[in-house]
Design a protein that fits this description.
about 45% helix, 7-stranded parallel sheet, 8 helices, about 250 residues
Length: about 250
């Protein structure tokens, strides 16, 4: 018998990086998982990798209409949820003085508005004793150049974690956050020219107390711990950053 046999979990942004690693870990331990993403190619790849215990659903994290449809899909396929991992998000690299309104709106819409209404819409499906985990970032406590809009969105999520944790206590729902530091998800390579990404990774490795990038599975383990094992913890944020925000 596996650790999370028949537990029912939704992972938004679950087709790559940290979300996919978390879904994989849960499936390996017997859970039934729904993952969301925007790209049909990554949805198909995740579905094939995760197997029959997982369902991949196309959904835009910033669209309230999509969130409503997602809730119906969860209700139809799973009935209720034992855990919700609110992980979908985007980055946006730009100097503060050159950040356009369009980039700001996109980043805050997906990273802050989306999670707020995802939790609100799915609360009726969360069983008493369930855990919600929100992905924040060390950027909400560190002044990192070039990602001011992203940092603002993650700061909003940190505050939201506390507020929603307090409001949902009467329902028996815990809400916590996992705060990744430099994790090797490939986001730098996808967001920057190859040479710039290589230089950024080398600098971040040198500056990190553990002198390395984290693996997505290391964040996944922390997220699953918060969702299922941290039964006397709510409103907290767990850094998974090699000590970068603490030392």
């Amino acid at each position: 018998m596996s650790k999370y046999d028949d537990k029912k979990v939704l992972v938004t942004g679950g087709t790559s990086g940290i979300g996919l690693a978390t879904a994989r870990l849960l499936v390996e331990e017997g859970a039934r998982v729904i993952v969301t993403g925007r790209s049909q190619a990554t949805l198909d790849a995740a579905r094939e990798e995760l197997g029959e215990r997982a369902t991949a659903v196309q959904s835009d994290a910033a669209s309230l209409a999509h969130i409503d449809v997602l809730a119906e899909r969860v209700r139809d396929e799973l009935g209720t949820l034992d855990a919700l991992f609110v992980n979908a998000g985007v980055n946006g690299f730009a100097p503060f003085e050159e950040t356009p309104e369009e980039l700001y709106d996109e980043v805050l819409g997906i990273n802050a508005k989306g999670p707020y209404f995802t939790v609100q819409t799915l609360v009726p499906l969360l069983a008493a004793g369930s855990g919600v985990v929100i992905t924040t970032s060390v950027a909400n406590v560190l002044g990192i150049p070039m990602i001011s809009a992203y940092a603002a969105s993650k700061g909003a999520l940190r505050s939201m974690t506390r507020s929603l944790a307090r409001e949902l206590l009467p329902r028996g729902i815990r809400i916590n956050a996992v705060s990744p530091g430099p994790i090797d998800t490939g986001v730098l390579e996808r967001s920057m020219p190859a040479e710039a990404a290589e230089q950024a990774k080398a600098q971040m490795t040198q500056e990190n107390p553990m002198q390395r990038f984290g693996d997505p599975r290391e964040v996944a383990k922390a997220a699953v711990f918060l969702a299922f094992e941290a039964t006397f913890t709510t409103g907290a944020e767990l850094p998974v950053d090699g000590g970068g925000s603490q030392l």
